[in-house]
Amino acid sequence: MKPTLPAKLLQALSPWRNAPAWHIAFSGGLDSTVLLHLLANAKDLPPLGAIHIHHGLQAAADAWPAHCQSVCDALGVPLRIMRVHVQPGASLERAARDARYQAFAEVTGAGEVLLTGQHRDDQAETLLFRLLRGAGVRGLAAMPAYRPLAAGHLVRPLLDVSRVELEAYAHEHRLQWIEDPSNADSRFSRNYLRHRVLPTLTERWPQAVSSLARTAEHLSEAQALLDELAGMDLQGADQLSRFPWLPLPSLVLAPLRELSDARQRNALRHWLTPLTRLPDSDHWASWYSLRDAKGDAQPLWRLADGELHRCAERIWWVPAAWSEFSDATVSWPTLQNPLELPGNGRLEFVGEVPKGSFEVRYRQGGEIIEVPGRGRRDLKRLLNECGVPGFVRGRLPLLYRDEQLLAVPTLAGLWPNATGDWQLHWMPQTCDQGLS
């Protein structure tokens, strides 16, 4: 005997029963209306709430918040209505999705769950859409049943349920839902697949939707195996750098070189996926150029959300935000210790604070510093000797007193200050993307 829709849903949600709260992404359409009704009538669940995102993209949508409010009021479920701004761009679908999920991330607290109503037909659609775009295994795995979202989780409990089952439940319980006019517009790729392509496929192969969804499951399992392999391949490369103060992800290059090209790409995709959007397989030439550059070179690979740098035999991920800082001179009254540097972390005297009036400046080239026991030394040469990565050097705060370069931060004890009774410590800025 086939399980009922409520039983199927609760089984899918069983791993999340102890979450602090469940939020339903409630558009007012068929899928989310059925999901809301099912959960509002279930017992012994975490606290339940609904979130309606108003994109402001069409006049008809102005009436939807009121409809959603009336549905939630009738079911006794609190509703939060959020208005978002959709950034203009080449893909309106993608821009709306990005705005929607950014709002969802804002309201999903630690350990909480956001539930969305995508179903089996949506999964088949997604697989076809990505197949036509030439996606790899990760993309063809389509929508995962769950994934991290902010400090909580995004869960899709209806991926094993067909649209026909949802419609039957909605009619049986006399539910009212919104039909989004844009869903009929075949200029949008997904709508074209839904209204033109999938009906033709199912006319010839009635089980096409189920078969496509099952294929996505197989590919999801294959991707899980590739992720396991990547984890094994990254173990040897994931070693602490000699610059523990530098809060950027990095890998040792030599263990990666021992892998085949395909395994290198797999390991790097796994490592970089949380940090940036990645190019397709035709655009990895920059990785090989970075990998094979001469030892004294400092090549980089520009990606969508930052850059991959190679310094000596290590690669570093440098997010776009890393270069967004002010290199203007900063006055430093020593009573203000530590000193906050605009966009560049903070600088701190450790030990007896020296007397005088100080300024913090950044490298212009040609700086000379007094090194105990070695006399006056060129700063560039000292940095080269210590192997400080090139992308850090422009951010290195330099302490001046009366136009004299007095000190450089003690970077992992590279060289001592001129006096032994204090040290200058720099704590670089961290940011959310890819930094500790």
From TrEMBL:
It comes from the Bacteria. Residues 358-426 form the Lysidine-tRNA(Ile) synthetase C-terminal domain. Its EC number is 6.3.4.19. GO terms for cellular component: cytoplasm. The keyword Transport does not apply. Keywords: ATP-binding, Cytoplasm, Ligase, Nucleotide-binding, tRNA processing. GO terms for molecular function: ATP binding; tRNA(Ile)-lysidine synthase activity. It catalyses: cytidine(34) in tRNA(Ile2) + L-lysine + ATP = lysidine(34) in tRNA(Ile2) + AMP + diphosphate + H(+). SMART domains: TilS_C. It is found in: Cytoplasm. One of its GO terms (biological process) is tRNA modification. PANTHER family: TRNA(ILE)-LYSIDINE SYNTHASE-RELATED. The N-terminal region contains the highly conserved SGGXDS motif, predicted to be a P-loop motif involved in ATP binding. NCBIfam families: lysidine_TilS_C (TIGR02433), lysidine_TilS_N (TIGR02432). Ligates lysine onto the cytidine present at position 34 of the AUA codon-specific tRNA(Ile) that contains the anticodon CAU, in an ATP-dependent manner. Cytidine is converted to lysidine, thus changing the amino acid specificity of the tRNA from methionine to isoleucine. Belongs to the tRNA(Ile)-lysidine synthase family. This is tRNA(Ile)-lysidine synthase. It comes from Pseudomonas cremoris.
